[in-house]
């Protein structure tokens, strides 16, 4: 079973060391979905992304154990965010600006709000991608608000224009989404956008995994930039861990077993048993077998000696 799971996750591109660590923590009977979730939580990445991951050495406790120290900080993590521990940020400028302008106006103020939010958290690498033709004077069919902000962000080396030109009176625009995903992938950063980039996901399987795991969606509430506290869902990492290179795992809270001392699952029980702290975690059936084998063996020995007497 161990070898089959090793082969399965090796084919997905995960490293053997990470797979062995997860199987050791969760047990050999862990489901493949649980193993995959734990690999993602540890920051392990398939194929080419694996070489860019910083391995985290975690101390986890086996299922059924009663230890209270169930989650530790990664090595070198002091609990405070610094520029070295925060991921690079790549912002889809067009998506953010149109979202702030209610999909009617290209609102540059929305880009400024997003940039300020990440700056306040301590991020130093922030790049915003906007098509070059947005520098042109606004037209009736493409209104732009607070266009001077683009020039200010460009002077700060935050905003980057993607190429565009006119050929025989027609505008030729390069695909800015490709710039956004490529730079974020190479920097191992986070993409800020409400776009799912489905076309780019179909182009490259590594980009598909990256977009699924590193896309940060957002909302604007009364001129306030608000990303979700759980970017990957209820069971995923917190926003702070999502934006950090070295996530801090919270202490896991174990639920007491509803059956208490009457539980017959033994070491297979996934709940907390305080009475088994210093006991061998055997099922009731195994304990009975172990007790009955001893007197049977003693009885056979006595019969043998009685024959020689």
TrEMBL record:
GO molecular function: hydrolase activity; mRNA binding; RNA endonuclease activity; zinc ion binding
Record InterPro entries: Rege-1_UBA-like (IPR040546), RNase_Zc3h12_NYN (IPR021869), ZC3H12/N4BP1_RNase_Reg (IPR051101), Znf_CCCH (IPR000571)
Source species, domain of life: Eukaryota
Record-given protein name: ZC12D ribonuclease
Family affiliation: Belongs to the ZC3H12 family.
Pfam families referenced in this protein's UniProt entry, alphabetically: RNase_Zc3h12a, UBA_6
Listed cofactors: Mg(2+)
Domain annotation C3H1-type: ranges: 251-276
């Amino acid at each position: 079973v161990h070898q089959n799971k090793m082969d399965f996750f090796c084919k997905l591109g995960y490293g053997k060391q990470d797979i062995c660590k997860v199987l050791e923590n969760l047990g050999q009977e862990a489901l493949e979905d649980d193993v995959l979730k734990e690999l993602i939580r540890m920051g392990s990445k398939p194929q080419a992304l694996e070489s860019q991951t910083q391995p985290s050495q975690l101390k986890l406790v086996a299922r059924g154990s009663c230890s209270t120290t169930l989650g530790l900080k990664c090595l070198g993590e002091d609990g405070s965010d610094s520029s070295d521990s925060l991921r690079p940020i790549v912002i889809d400028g067009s998506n953010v600006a149109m979202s702030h302008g209610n999909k009617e106006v290209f609102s540059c103020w929305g880009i400024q709000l997003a940039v300020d939010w990440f700056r306040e958290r301590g991020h130093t690498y922030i790049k915003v991608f906007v098509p070059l033709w947005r520098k042109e004077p606004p037209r009736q069919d493409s209104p732009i608000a607070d266009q001077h902000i683009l020039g200010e962000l460009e002077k700060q080396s935050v905003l980057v224009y993607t190429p565009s030109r006119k050929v025989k009176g027609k505008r030729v625009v390069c695909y800015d989404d490709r710039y956004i995903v490529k730079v974020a992938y190479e920097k191992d950063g986070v993409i800020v956008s409400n776009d799912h980039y489905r076309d780019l996901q179909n182009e490259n399987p590594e980009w598909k995994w990256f977009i699924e795991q590193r896309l940060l969606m957002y909302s604007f509430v009364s001129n306030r930039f608000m990303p979700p506290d759980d970017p990957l869902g209820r069971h995923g990492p917190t926003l702070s861990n999502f934006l950090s290179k070295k996530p801090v795992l919270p202490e896991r809270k174990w639920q007491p077993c509803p059956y208490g001392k009457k539980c017959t699952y033994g070491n297979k029980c996934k709940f907390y048993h305080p009475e088994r702290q210093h006991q061998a975690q055997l099922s009731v059936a195994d304990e009975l077998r172990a007790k009955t084998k001893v007197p049977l063996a003693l009885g056979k020995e006595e019969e043998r000696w009685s024959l020689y007497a």
